[in-house]
Predict the 3D structure of the following.
Amino acid sequence: MPLPAPVQPSPAQQQAAAQADADACRAALASRPDDAQLHHQLAKSLVALTQYDAAEAAFQQAIALAPGAALLCDHGELLALTQRHALAIEAYQAALRHEPGNAATYNCLGLSFQASGQLQQALDAYRKMLHHLPGNALAYNNIGSVLQAQDQLEEALEHYRQAQLAAPYFQYAHFNAGTCLMRLERFEEAQACFVETIRLDAGFHLAHINLSAIQGKLGHLDDTIATCRRALAVNPAWADMHSNLLFTLSHSAQLGPAALFAEHRHFGEQFETPLRAAWPRHANVRDPARRLRVGFVSADLNNHAVANFIAPVLEHLVHAEGLELHIYCNNIINDAVTTQLRDVVRHWHDVQALSDEQLALNIQADGIDILVDLSGHTGHNRLQTFARKPAPLQATWIGYPLSTGLQSMDYYLTDRFFSPPGLLDEQFTEKLLRLPATAPFMPSAVSPPVSAAPASVHGYITFGSFNRPGKLSAAVIARWSRLLRAVPTAKMLLAAMPSEQISDTLRAAFVKEGIAAERLSFHPHTNTRDYLALHSQVDVCLDTSPYNGGTTTCHALWMGVPTLTMTGPTLPGRVGAAILEQVSLAEFIASDDDDFLQKGIAIAGDPAHLAQLRTGMRARMSNAPSGQPALIAAGLDNALRGMWQRHCAGLPPASFDAEPAQSSLHQRATSLQSLHDVNVDAALLLAIEHHQSSRFVEAETLYLAIIHSQPRHVIANHNMGLLATQLGFPHEALPYLSAAHDAAPQQAEFCLSYAQGLLRAGQARQAHNVLAAAIARGLDDDALPALLQQAVVALTTPTQDEADYVVALYQAGQHAELEAAAHTLVARYPESGFAWSVLGTALQAQGKDALATLQTAVALAPDDAQTHGNLGNAWQEQGQHARAIECYARALALDVGFADAYCNMGSAQAALGQAAEAAESYRMALALEPSHDLARQKNAALQQAQAALSASAEK
């Protein structure tokens, strides 16, 4: 007969039990105040009640009475829970001195080492755990997690396998093995691990996420959809899984347009409807002509397609007279592209650590008028922030080719090529706002020249695909195979393959369709230069459906290769057509499978036409609306103003076409386009003449026209960088100075200008790297070593503007912003004691553990009194009053007039019962600063306490 499952108490019952236990402990302590076990039990009850400060005090009382292994370990767990890992490590090590063989304590010690980034120490702790508990699954698992973090993937996998064997029911071992196998690109094995994880624990969120990611990567769309739906049946509140479902459905032909739209609306009903009653009443002034604050939210502001699309527009949009731009960066990865964007947009907010609710509150506090989403239903989106309606107007752009499904999202930014008026409007909760082009395409600086058509060399047509394998469904392979059967001499190149396993799977799918394996060539995912060079082996690309290629189609056109596409009934199925229509290549747009076949046969039969198109393709791309980022920026400026004017007039959002001619940026866009075909040599001489005569606007227009025509033109980029610097825009100068340096790395002049520009922009580390690399490759110029020394000094010295900025944040009480700014300073100046001290101050102001941070600050700035004082405060917050006094004494040795140090030392001395010393410290603080209210209050309290003690003694 099966036994019934034990009944678990509810959270409320658990809280009530903990409160009762705490009350009982306090009652018992009234008569037994020196009972260490009672203090220990009270501390554990208070932890359960999340009363951490009171629990800390109870632990300290217990430890003072009778320190023991269990007590010290429990105290360490509290310290770790409250992110005070340095102190937690000390507590666990103390526990192990009492009980050296305790495996559980070694586990806790390893966890705190790992959380604080001390991976080797964590590994040692876990191995000692395994020594004391041979064959323990948790020990094997944790050793594997450290090895994986150290990129020792095969060894990590072996430890996960040991954990699986030791405890087949241990879901974390299966999950971690799966993540490790993903990194090893052994996708089928990883998939099996995640399936087993979910079998053991259906509520394991990340296992569902990773399983769906692998299935999508393998192109198993139906399986991915089923996985997402099963996960949502377990927990409908998993918003990221719901977004994964929508993203996958957008790639599938499983649903028609109406059903697909209904799925998106369901997302809004699930996650937005409960929030609508709490939407704020915005206080933004409804003035149609005032300067607008526009915010952009994205997790892809790094080397990602979204950043590559938006960066050229932002470089022009920052010059719009009526806009103040803000970036809310939700990046997981920060790289050189992130740095470049920071240089373009001054108001930069790192928000990855903020909850959706907190981010919404911050955006509202920043007074954002129009908030723009750049993610849609892609990874790490912030749609649940937008669902809270933190800005009066909200729009989505670039990141996702379908509706968000949110009523709070007012506009979807598109163009007439993607979304002809009336064609797709019914598929969006948003109103469609049409720009001159949805987004610009700017060719890569490493693009090789356009090659001759390979058919003219080989005598046969080569089809190609550079789309990610997840888009190569069975239906797509069947469509391409039909064309390959109809053109039996043709071959096909497939690139961007993440693994041999996926290449083999796709090869087998073609063979099943009757296409011999020798007609196919597969190429792995590679760097941009080699990826673009592969186009020299392709005559015409074949597009995917129902989700067309976008960036890949643009890159192929730039390399002279057109794409044969097939339109679909949704926006993802119109991307290829929209791109080709802009460059007047409608002959490559098919309406259905039969049309795709007939057009493919005709294209393959006319290699001379393909060769002719190839030579003129870059001119077509440059003259298309998507080749004019200044025009798109002018359109966006007007679009933002137009939606705001409707809002001010009390009108609801409505679809409309942007009018770039009405923007203050229009002249800029017109000048660039009219000079597109300018004679470069003549324009350069005229630009230099304007520059030398201080006619800066004319010089800028000509330099930019030359760069638009020849992006790697050395002199135009160099002089444009110098001009931007002259005009007071050192950050905007960097892309131009960098381009000149990259184009002519052996010329010292361009290296020096770029390094000087980096130093002016506060990027000393990059300047140091550029100069050191130039000297290492033998560049000979006496100015290089001297400038390198300047960079070395600047590495540890934040600029005055940076220092003023963090001081202003502190004075304004913006501690979360201060922490973000301090992290940026630490990343930029890792050897600056000031930067680490600011970070410690920000952490302290928010009640976070700042001890390790301030210890680093003191090590880097041993002669800074304020830093020693801050470290003293951190020790005092941890109850380590003697250590705090030592820090204050060092601070006062450096600065005898440091009144705050005297005051804080008095507090520490009073806590240790050193009343006379505390009184003297308060007296010194008041002597130095008679208006020091805190010192006066503490001194008065001390005197009252002393008087009370004296009165009690007399009785």
Notes: The first strand starts at residue 292 and ends at 298. Residues 933-954 form the longest helix (22 residues).
